């Protein structure tokens, strides 16, 4: 099977956010140019040059200066032909007209902007570098140069956030006629500033019921808009759904390039070395910069098919499951599916099994049921 998607990781940030657990480093005094050289070398070793989707994430890719950004963009274009979606993550205050024009010139057609909230006090708590007005400027810049699809990330269940705060952020995003919204509830991840503050009793989170109320409001409000839910946390206008992210949810293979990047190729899931210097050193020695490699068992692949596929509104297609694994879905997960149908957490529509609205609210519980099955 030919791999037609790739993810590139830029692990640098101008400031480290309080909630973030991705592989990232404060950009000051980092060997950024050396890292880009190593990243380019890793990409060029790859044999398949024809891609349908490319996603450049981080960290923050827009933390790179104009010269560094052009070096990366030029290398991507010299290495790959991208026929479909080409996405870049961006921070609003870093998305200057010059940077977004550069992205457009090299074929980027989708910007995913880390907005998180429009409320200044919450932006401060999250450790974000941008201000509310930067969001409007960045969206305006992206539109002026003709970026085809603009997505905003919004968070809920934040410390000190009320339901009204979240509603207001949602309304402000909708007022800008955004093409796509990704919205996630805060999860306290180990090794983050928030986690350490929480352990020391210096951070109080809203209760779980309020988080669930925010999520239900999100679904109901966006159902009334032109942004339609197509995955648990993602809503887009028709034609603006993230085709790259669907690769993950459909359990298909993809390349991962850069420090800490993950990939899935030839049935093997792998993660690259995290520390920037370790990654650079491995590349310079002409070694694969891989930290871990695991080949999921046949049973694990079927489990993955369920808990990834059920994230999407369309759910898991029973015919596709049978084609991929040579087994009817009922012979593997029949009892679990029946139990979840009985609890109104799953629904069956023709050849698709998907989450109900109630199932989406407690999605992790549904996914765990499939992990426990085998």
From TrEMBL:
Pfam families: HemN_C (PF06969), Radical_SAM (PF04055)
Localization in the cell: Cytoplasm
InterPro entries: Aldolase_TIM (IPR013785), Coproporphyrinogen-III_oxidase (IPR034505), Elp3/MiaA/NifB-like_rSAM (IPR006638), HemN_C (IPR010723), HemW-like (IPR004559), rSAM (IPR007197), rSAM_sf (IPR058240)
Coiled coil: none
Ranges of residues in domain Radical SAM core: 1-228
Gene3D superfamilies: Aldolase class I
Superkingdom classification of source: Bacteria
Iron-sulfur keyword on record: yes
Entry keyword set: 4Fe-4S, Chaperone, Cytoplasm, Heme, Iron, Iron-sulfur, Metal-binding, S-adenosyl-L-methionine
Role played: Probably acts as a heme chaperone, transferring heme to an unknown acceptor. Binds one molecule of heme per monomer, possibly covalently. Binds 1 [4Fe-4S] cluster. The cluster is coordinated with 3 cysteines and an exchangeable S-adenosyl-L-methionine.
Family per similarity comment: Belongs to the anaerobic coproporphyrinogen-III oxidase family. HemW subfamily.
NCBIfam families listed in its UniProt record: hemN_rel (TIGR00539)
Protein name, as recorded: Heme chaperone HemW
Native species: Staphylococcus caprae
Gene name per UniProt: hemN
